[in-house]
Amino acid sequence: MIRMTDPVSKPLLEVRGLTKRFGGIAAVSDLSLTVAQGKILALMGPNGAGKTTTFNLIAGTLTPTSGTIIFDGQDISNFKPDERCKAGMARTFQITQPFDELTVIENVMVANMRFHRSMAEMRRDAMRQVEMVGLADRTNVYAKGLSTGERKRLEMARAMATRPKLLLMDEVTGGVDQKSIPGLLDLVKTLREEGQTLVIIEHNMGVINELSDRAIFMNQGVHMASGTPKEVAAHPQVVELYLGEETVDA
Fold first, then answer.
1. Lower CB count within 10 Å: N or C terminus of the chain?
2. What are the domain boundaries of the chain?
């Protein structure tokens, strides 16, 4: 069993021996990892590596075949997705999933409603998140009218409105036009500066180098290499599997 630990900080997330089988196929096999408070861990690997399956297991949308997930000192292996959200875990999706018939501000209000007693409080709180992601001028625009980059920002606002201790971000820059990428990276950097803990899936090595403290390379459900982004990028198997690939999807 391979284990990656931070020697200084206490883990906020610890995954032990996580396995997910679909029939005879192991989508994730005996995966162990830790994420320290305030750090950013990147999951990387080729198509079918098991990255998104790992996210779904951590977030609770899939049930592991075996293994344990410890979050903030608590075993959440059997928690449902909403219970994990209440415990302090949030996620974004590679393909954004806003409520298209609601406005930007209404989408974020849905995410924060459990913290407030009145619509006015919900709106004030939501507006802070909308401003944080740079959508203040789009507050009353319906989500279906947003660009891909704006929808990514809305996903971040909705996730942060749940007041997460851990944010799972699936494909930070996936499907986004080039001019929108710097702004999204700046948002993630701001979250890091504020002490937010993140696990990200990303295929762009430049983005991984810029954002993450540590990285894990997966292939066919197996954890093959871990370390700093530069260490992982220099690993012989990573070089071999990534050679000539410009985009690598989950």
1. N
2. 11-93+166-242
